[in-house]
Amino acid sequence: MNINLDVEVVEEDQTITLTLRGEIDAYTAPKLKDALLPLTKKPGAEVIVDLEQINYMDSTGLGVFISALKSTKEYDSELKLIQLQDRVRRLFEITSLDSIITIESTVRGGN
Amino acid sequence: MENTKLDLDNYRSLLKEYLLTKNETALYQAEQFSKLSMQHNISPEEIIHVHIEALKELYPDLTQEVNDSLNFLLEAMISYGLAYQEFQTLREKQSELQSEISVAASMQQTLLSTVKPEIKGLDIGAISVPANQMSGDYYHFVTDKEDDTLGIAIADVIGKGIPAALAMSMIKYSMDSFPENQRNPSAILENLNRVVERNVDPSMFITMFYGLYNPGNETFSYASAGHEPGFYYHGDQDEFEEIEARGLVLGATDQATYRQFERKIKKNDCIILLTDGVTECRIGDRFIERDEILQVIKKYIQLPAQEAVEQVYKHFERLQEFQFRDDFTLIIIRKEV
Q1: pLDDT by residue (tens digit) across A38-71?
Q2: Statement: B114-335 belongs to CATH 3.60.40.10
Q3: Who's near B190: CB < 8 A, 6+ residues apart?
Q4: Which of B74-78, B160-164, B167-171 has the lowest mean pLDDT?
Q5: Who has greater pLDDT, B182 or B283?
Q6: Could you tell me the CATH number of the domain that includes residue A99?
């Protein structure tokens, strides 16, 4: 698999936005984990993950978001996912993770 | 073909032959010589050493520069030779690891093996094919001799390879240890959720569907922990319906509860359970949609259950460029009477 994941981090005070581009699967999930987890360990931080340019994510990606969520509980920070494509949103719905992770409710199309 | 001998005399005569005749046969024999050298763990610098010695014997009057340059080459090849030796050692280690993983994989199969039960009035088919050696998918049938009920668990551990396989064994043994009177699906999932939450890595989770069929009242009760929805097939209308049973994946929080659903099963109806290895696969750049999977299942649903699951698997396996990114598990249960 030659498809990669790009991670871009913008910090403004307590708000940290992670913009992802590419695919999240077993190969790229460790990269996401390394970028995301340390950010959730800053008390009071609001970590926003922009998934607009993620057209494929498998369940390994869900695992990264679950561990990030657990970490926000431990360090009193917040996690929010925005701009999910339908396919990615469906994963959160099937697994009911949308009931414990804050997901921006705007519905997006995408392929 | 005459045996290539690994010695100076042989190399010298090959070299001499080649220098005098530019003969292709000598070149070919040189190639054999180097292959044989590799088999005998002879390092590249040793071959160069042999070459220098042979050359000096054939041409005792080599200029000082040529002599020096050959020695220079010899030195340069030493670290190359060391790297090659290291490579050989790694290759041996790799094959050792490979065989250890094979042992683990067969042990996993033994630990998790489940017998597809023969139950009067039910036709059951099941297939599970791992994407790698160790499977993260799991299905299990639990029969109860006293009340004839059939429990069916299908699960997918997220996280792959050995850690996933170990987690699966833990799940199986937890299920086996639950008391008989707690066999209803929602209680089983709630108990398992606590086990998983306490015992596995935070980024690992498990999806599971658990169903219990009671032939006494022909009722199927079920609950799902974030598992890919299965399908219910209405035999009389030849129609499929998604089995909706929302519930949180196992291991995400310790307080999850699971709603239990019930439905009556009619003659010729089927329950179809699968893991997302089926829906997460793709052909080239294209994803396979759930509708497409359903079309394939529909094509084979009239076959005996075991034949049907095998045909569905073969259909996807046959597709060109098709890649299983995950383990593939499919179960079909048909009520025959």
Answers
A1: 999 999 999 999 999 998 888 889 999 999 999 9
A2: yes
A3: B256, B257, B258
A4: B160-164
A5: B182
A6: 3.30.750.24
Q: Is A70 on the interface with B (CB under 8 A)?
A: yes
ipTM for this model? 0.83
What pLDDT was estimated at residue B3? 54
Q: Are B246 and B291 in contact (CB under 8 A)?
A: no
CB contact under 8 A, B252 and A58: no
Contact, A80 vs A47, CB < 8 A? yes
- The parent domain of residue A18 ranges over 5-103
Smallest Cβ–Cβ distance between A96 and the set B226, B228, B280 belongs to: B226
Kindly compute the dihedral angle of the four CA atoms of residues A39, A42, A45, A46, in this order, to the nearest 10 degrees: 30
In a domain, A60, yes or no: yes
Using the Cβ of A67 and the Cβ atoms of chain B, whether some distance falls under 8 Å is answered with yes
Decide if domain B8-92 falls under CATH 1.10.1240.30: yes
Site from A34, A59, A86 to mutate, B interface, most B CB atoms within 10 angstroms: A59
CB contact under 8 A, A96 and B204: no
- Residue ranges, comma separated, of all CATH 3.60.40.10 domains in chain B are 114-335
- List the single best residue of A60, A73, A96 to mutate versus B (max B Cβ within 10 A): A96
The nearest alpha carbon in chain B to A62 belongs to B203
Residue-wise pLDDT tens digits, A63-78: 999 999 999 999 999 9
- Comparing C-alpha atoms, which of B221, B210, B110, B204 is closest to residue B158? B204
Classify residue A70: in a domain, yes or no.
yes
A111 is a domain residue: no
Disruptive mutation site among B249, B276, B290 for chain A (greatest number of A CBs within 10 Å): B249
Tokens of A10: 């913008």
Q: Which residues of B touch A37 (CB under 8 A)?
A: none
The count of domains in chain A is 1
Q: In what order do the strands lie in the sheet with B328-335?
A: B122-129, B328-335, B270-274, B231-234, B239-242
Cβ distance A63 to B204 less than 8 Å, yes or no, reads yes
